[in-house]
Design goal:
Keywords: Membrane, Transmembrane, Transmembrane helix. The chain crosses the membrane at residues 29-58. The chain is mostly helical. It has helices at residues 3-7, 21-115, 121-127, 129-140, 145-149, 159-181, 188-222. Helix 2 (21-115) packs across helix 7 (188-222), helix 3 (121-127) crosses helix 4 (129-140) and helix 6 packs antiparallel against helix 7. 14% of the residues are buried.
Length: 228
């Protein structure tokens, strides 16, 4: 006997059949209960999925935060290493060029002293060929090979010092080029003008040399290379 037979006395339904409405009511109630249970189950599944998703998001947040902290730490270490490297490069550049600049400063100071001898250096330069030739020979001996070699590394040095170093190089090269132009055919007035120009230019070079040599001394002191 089927379930339908249990709730209906005849099948198919005829005019003399008696339907058990109480049974049908019970089946409806049972169906409602099952539907409710199913809905509750679905709701709990939804809650579980939501909770799992929230937990996953929380875990991802923690992982992302840790990754961000690690990235910040690595960036800080790299920045510190870069700063240390650049500082070291600056010190090494200054130490390397220091002896050459000191030597050139002494030579330029001697040339200036000769050009300004007894406050009559200009006239002596214009009228005394031997005096003039001595100056030209001294100027020609000025040399900055090391400064020329490290020009490509001057970006490690602070800008004012690097600029002074380049200007020193430019002044020496300019004075030497001007000296080579002299051919002994210049007038006294032309030679006096040349003397004044060279004197002012070399004084500028001495000021730059003094400043840069001071930075070189600081670098050697930081590296504990100063002789006592």
């Amino acid at each position: 006997m089927s379930m339908l037979d249990g709730v209906s006395q005849c099948w198919p339904i005829a005019h003399d059949c008696h339907i058990w409405w109480e049974a049908w009511s019970a089946i409806g109630a049972l169906a409602a209960v099952l539907t409710g249970i199913t809905a509750i189950g679905v709701a709990w599944v939804g809650i579980g999925v939501t909770s799992a998703s929230a937990y996953a998001v929380w875990r991802l947040g923690i992982a992302a935060n840790r990754a961000s902290q690690e990235a910040t730490r690595i960036a800080g270490v790299q920045a510190e290493r870069t700063s240390y490297k650049e500082d070291t490069e600056q010190l090494l550049v200054l130490v390397q060029v220091a002896p050459e600049l000191v030597n050139v400063r002494i030579k330029v100071e001697r040339i200036l002293a000769g050009l300004n001898h007894d406050s009559l250096g200009g006239m002596a330069f214009a009228t005394d060929k031997e005096y003039r030739d001595a100056f030209l020979a001294a100027a020609e001996k000025l040399s900055l090979p090391i400064l020329g070699e490290i020009t490509g590394r001057l970006h490690y040095v602070d800008r004012p010092t690097a600029a002074r170093m380049l200007r020193i190089k430019g002044v020496v090269e300019t004075v030497q080029a001007d000296c080579r132009i002299l051919n002994g055919q210049e007038s006294e007035e032309e030679l006096l003008h040349f003397h004044r120009t060279v004197f002012v230019t070399l004084r500028l070079a001495v000021a730059d040399l003094t400043a840069v040599c001071g930075e070189c001394e600081k670098a050697m002191a930081r590296l504990q290379l100063v002789n006592h």
